[in-house]
Amino acid sequence: MTQSTSYSDICILRLSAIGDVCHAVSAVQAIQKAHPHAKITWVIGKVEAMLLADLPGVEFVVFDKKQGKQAYKQLKETFKGRKFDVLLHMQVALRANLAARCIPAKVKVGFDWARSKELHSLFINKRIAAQAEAHVLEGFQGFAKAIGVPEYEPSWQMPITDAHQHTADTLLGTERLAGRIFVISPAASKKERNWLPERYAALADYAHNQGFSVVITGGPTPLENELAEQIIAHSHVPVLNLVGKTQLKELLCVLKRASLVLAPDTGPAHMAVTVGTPVIGLYAHSNPKRTGPYLYQNYVVEVYHQNLLEQTGKTADQLPWGTRVKGADLMAQIRVEEVTLMFDLVLLKEQL
Fold first, then answer.
1. Which of 23, 123, 124, 277 has an alpha carbon within 20 to 30 A of 207's alpha carbon?
2. Total number of domains constituting the chain
3. What residue intervals traverse the membrane (predicted)?
C-alpha cells in the first residue's frame, strides 16, 4: 500500500471510547484530505456516534454492543454485497475483532505485533508500522500512513452546529460568557481514577479567586451526580453544575467556550483537545504519554511513573508500553499545591 494506491471505498473500525474516537477523527480527516474521492464508512459504538454524528463526508454504521449477537448479524446484513478496498481495524478488543469478521474488505489493516491483543492478528492481513512509545493518537496516525497519507499535524473539524452552541451558551449564561470559564470534568469511567472532591473544590476556589467562572460537567450517572454535589459542598464559591444537563455535542460546545479544563483520564479531556481548549490532566494509573490530552501533555500532573517504579521496580521504558499500575487510592497522591502550580503555569503559557 503506497501513496499512489487509489482508494474508492474505505472502512474504519473503531467502536469506542469517547477519547479514542476523538483521536481517530484527526486520522480520518487526514485520510479525507489525502483521498478526497474515497467514500469513508465508520463502524462505531452507539454513544460515540452521538458525538460524531454528521461528521462531514463520513457514513456511520452504529454497532450497539448491548444487542449482543444481533449486533454482528446486523453488521453482516448492512454490508451484504459490498466490498471495501481496505478496512482500517483500529481496535484490538475482542468485540471489535469479531466485528471485523463481518466487514468485507480486500485488505484488513491492523496493529503491529507489539500492540496486537485478544486474537487481533487473526482478523487482519496487513499491519501498521511498529512505533516506539506511541500515544494512542499516533497509533491511529499509523493507519493513515499505511494507506499513503503523508506526515500531518493532528487537527479536528468537529461536527457541532450553531444550535448546539446556542444551547451550551444558554446553559452557561451571559455572565460567564463575558469572562473566563474554568471547567472541571471530574469523573473518569472508573472511580479509582477520580481525584478527591475536596481537592477539586480547592481548585474551584482557586480559579474563582483568579477571576474565573467555575463550571462542573459530566454525564447523568449517579456517580457523576454524587461527585459534583460533593465538590460543590466543599467549595466556598459559586459553581455552575451542568452534570447531566448536556448532550455530548452540547458538552463539546461548553468545553469550546472554556478557557481551561481540569480532568482525570476521561473522554471530555480529549474532547477539549479537539476544540483547542487547554487541559490540565490528572493521571495515576496509566501513562499520560500514551493516553494524556495530546496537545497538552506538558500540562499533566501525574504520579504514574513513581507508582510504576514502586510496584514493578522498573521504569516505563523498561516495561511493555502502556503498563498500568494498580491501587484504589493512587489519585490521592496528587496534591492541591501541584495542581495550582500547574494552573498558574498554564495561565502564563496560554496567556489566559
1. 23
2. 2
3. none
